[in-house]
Amino acid sequence: MQKIIVSLLLSFILTQGFAQQEKSLSTYLSFQVTPALHDQTLGNNPLGMGLGLQTFFNVSSKFKPTAEITGDIYFPHDDVFRMNGDGTAKLEVPSMVNLLAGAAFAPAKNIYVSFVAGPSFING
Which are the contacts of 92, defined by CB distance < 8 A and separation ≥ 6? Predict the structure, then answer.
């Protein structure tokens, strides 16, 4: 009876061990809020919320290529003055989309620091 139990456990462990394969992509969904926590003119600052999607390309190096797309919406009723290139006033920034690419440094399994850059599109 012990041989059967040991054989079943060993076969279960081995099938799980050989069935594991690292994925080539890791994707994470994030949620962000951008409030001003302390400011002399706290009522003037816009409040924003958004979602982000970050993808890591799993390679054997500690530096992993990464791509990120985030979308934020900003709530109205702030007093921040914004000006267009021709000198006319722009009253609000309702949304922003960021497309970023770069590299992430992962010194440990669950710790990473990423360096990304890319364009931001205001109002689409």
Answer: 46, 74, 76, 78, 82
Could you tell me the CA-to-CA distances from 39 to 32, 42, 45, 75 in Å, in that order? 20, 5, 9, 18
Between residues 118 and 84, which one has the greater pLDDT? 118
What distance in Å separates the CA atoms of residue 6 and residue 32, rounded to the nearest whole number?
49
d(CA 15, CA 12): 5
Q: What is the pLDDT of residue 83?
A: 75
Residue type, 34: T
Q: CA-CA distance, 75 to 34, in Å (whole number)?
A: 11
Spatial distance between the Cα atoms of 119 and 117, rounded to a whole number of angstroms: 7
Please determine, for residue 33, whether its predicted confidence score (pLDDT) is greater than 80.
Answer: yes
Please tell me the predicted confidence (pLDDT) of residue 111: 84
**Amino acid letter, 72:** D
Q: Which two tokens stand for residue 34?
A: 């951008």
- The predicted-structure confidence for 56-85, as pLDDT tens digits, reads as follows 888 888 888 999 999 888 776 666 667 777
Residue in the block written with tokens 């390679």: 59
Query: What is the radius of gyration, based on Cα positions, of the chain?
Result: 24
